[in-house]
Every structure is written in C-alpha cells, then in structure tokens.
Design a protein that fits this description.
- The chain is of the alpha/beta class.
- It has two domains: 171 residues, Rossmann fold (3-Layer(aba) Sandwich), CATH 3.40.50; 182 residues, Dehydroquinate synthase-like - alpha domain (Dehydroquinate synthase-like, alpha domain), CATH 1.20.1090.
- 47% of the residues lie in helices and 18% in strands.
- The chain is built from 14 helices and eleven strands.
- Strands 1-2-9-6-5-3-4 form a seven-stranded mixed β-sheet, sandwiched between helices. It has a two-stranded antiparallel sheet with strand order 7-8. It has a two-stranded antiparallel sheet with strand order 10-11.
- A hairpin with a 6-residue loop joins strand 1 and strand 2.
- The longest helix has 21 residues.
- The chain is globular and about 60 Å long.
- The termini are far apart.
Length: 358
C-alpha cells in the first residue's frame, strides 16, 4: 500500500493506493477519525460488485452502515438525483456527526461529495473511486457538483474529502471503453506537467492496456501526486490548477452537444486535447511531431481523436458557458510541447475552430 498526502493544512488528507486494499477501509477511516454512522452512495453496477465487501469491512470497524443506490450514468448527475440522496439521509435521521462514502466513478464521487458539502451545511465524506478516471482525477482535489442541461458541472462546490481509498483491483471489472476513458486523463498529466511520465506511458502502454497491477499502481500514483501538488498550491482554481483542464473546454462542449453519457468524459477530453495540440501547433507552441505523439498514444489507448460533426457556432455557444470564461472571453489551456502548458486567450478562436473542424 502506498500513501500520498494532499497538504491543505488542517484539511489535509491521505490517499491510499494499492492492490486489494478495500478490506483495509476500516483502519483508514479510523486514522482520520471518520464518523461511526455512515451512508455509502453507489450505483447498482458498482454496488453489486463491491458493496457487500465494503459494508462488511465497515461493520468490522464498528460502523453503522446505510446504502443509498442512485441510477448509473452521467445523465443522472442532476439536482433531482441529489434531492433523492438528501431524502434518504433525512428519512434515516442522519445528523452532522455522520459521514458519506462515495463508492463508484466520477459521477458518484461528484454527487456524493456535493451532497456532503451541502447537507446540514457540511458533513465529512470519503472517496472510494472504482474507475480509472475517478482514481486519477475526480476523487482528488475536492471538486464536487452536478450537471445542468446547459452545461457540465455548472452547479457545485469545492469540498475536500477526509480520505481517498484507491484499490486498482477494481479496474479489472471495467469495460474496455470505460478503462480507456480513464487513460485519457493519465495522458493529460504527462502532457501538461511531466515529459518523463509521458515517455513512461509510451514505453509501458502494452502493460497498461493489459491492466498490469504494477503499471496501474505507478500510473495512478504519478497522476495523483501531480494533481495533489497542483491542488496544494491552488485549491480553488485561481491559478495553476486551471492547467488540469487541458482538453476540457472543448471536451465539455462535445459532451453537452452529444447528450450526457453518449460520449464519455475521457473520450471528450481526448478529442479536446488533440484539438488543443493542433491549435498549439498553429501558433508555434508545439511541433507537428509533438501532435503526432499525442495522437498516436491516445489512438493506441483506443480513444477518439476526431471531433463529432457539430456546427462551429454550436461548439462556441457551449464553450461560452465554460467556467474558465472571463469577461465573455473563452480561454483555453494549450500545451507547450509535451510536459508544459499554459492558459491562453486565442484571437479569432471562431475562425481557428472553423479551419480545424472542417
């Protein structure tokens, strides 16, 4: 078992990463003085696989456990589903001395985290991410929330967990498409921050696709460490944390226009990262060889690299609602070669998108 700490002063928390460590959840929660009365928020797919084992481990540590199952899928990441979680907590007489545990992927983690942030003005919660995407991205850093019909994650709060518990064995049951979606976020860390890690991903791509436990633990640890370092320096995304959004401005537009759940988040981010790289090449921030390496690695991981055929005006309309828009101006994260990135305001973005999308 490996451990990383997200250093946020009194709100610091550990990330445990390993193989077959779900049984250790009781001792992990004891270490952070987590409440005795807890509710596990999950969906039927993940619940059927891991909930019994989790409940048994929690009960063995003396905890009283309720289970709240919500529908599976991005399309259910809504205020309506959130209200259902509140209803159960109220019906079962949860108070400020109780806690929530998110067991599932990014949708579950985001909703359970937002429920914890807002129920009785805040109760503690823990992340147990079961998808690669949630293990390397959404479970770390305290972003919580739900979608709005007009945009992804427009309603939410920054609210840090008490603990993040990552067992890579959960990845064995992921579909090929879901697993690939998570690899997009792993590749992102190499592009924005660490050329050496990007090189490692290229060299170990076969082991990653084969879901070797050693390769997965290393990839998850490296990704979480990079994200933890960023969050420690910019918790509320006022500076460098925005770089974690490489590919996301356009990717969120893809998700919104296609309809939530049609294009998976990681797939949309992969498309967005390639578009960002092509824009970077156009304004001489990266080379054609850099773009080719990014496209080749994403393609090897069975991720899409070509945008869906929506009108440029439709893309721009959705991008105008992105959280990084400032004074009505769309700003995008662009890679500088591989291993570095920065936020840019692109002059004539509509014309450049028109050229690249046709």
């Amino acid at each position: 078992m490996n451990q990383i700490t997200v250093g946020l002063g009194e709100r610091s928390y550990p990330i445990w990463i390993g193989e077959r460590i779900l049984a250790n959840i009781g001792s992990a929660l004891d270490a952070v003085a987590f409440p005795v009365k807890v509710a596990v928020v999950t969906n039927p797919t993940v619940g059927d696989l891991y909930c019994d084992q989790l409940v048994e481990s929690l009960a063995a540590s003396g905890r009283k456990v309720s289970v709240i199952r919500v529908p599976d899928g991005e399309e259910y990441k809504t205020l309506e589903t959130l209200e259902n979680i509140y209803d159960v907590l109220i019906d079962r007489q949860f108070d400020r001395y109780c806690g929530l545990i998110a067991l599932g992927g990014g949708v579950i983690g985001d909703m359970a985290g937002f429920a914890a942030a807002t129920f009785l003005r805040g109760i503690p919660f823990v992340q147990i991410p079961t998808t690669l995407l949630s293990q390397v991205d959404s479970s770390v850093g305290g972003k919580t929330g739900v979608n709005h019909p007009q945009g992804k994650n427009l309603i939410g709060a920054f609210y840090q967990p008490r603990h993040v518990h990552i067992d890579v064995m959960a990845l064995a049951t992921l579909s090929k498409r879901e697993f690939a979606s998570g690899l997009a976020e792993v590749v992102k860390y190499g592009i924005i921050h660490d050329l050496e890690f990007f090189n490692w991903l290229e060299e170990h791509r076969e082991s990653l696709v084969a879901r070797s436990a050693d390769a997965l633990v290393h990839a998850v640890m490296k990704s979480c460490q990079i994200k933890a370092n960023v969050v420690e320096n910019d918790e509320k995304e006022q500076g460098i944390r925005v770089l974690l959004n490489l590919g996301h401005t356009f990717g969120h537009a893809v998700e919104t226009l296609a309809g939530y759940g049609v294009v998976k988040h990681g797939e949309a981010v992969a498309i967005g990262m390639v578009l960002a790289a092509r824009i970077s090449q156009r304004i001489n921030l990266c080379s054609a060889a850099d773009v080719d390496r990014i496209v080749e690695l994403l393609t090897y991981f069975d991720l899409p690299v070509t945008p869906p055929d929506f009108a440029v005006t439709d893309y721009l309309k959705v991008m105008q609602r992105d959280k990084k828009v400032k004074d009505g101006v769309v700003r995008v994260v662009l890679n500088h070669g591989i291993g570095s990135a920065a936020m840019h305001q692109i002059k004539d973005l509509d014309k450049m998108l028109g050229d690249l999308l046709t």
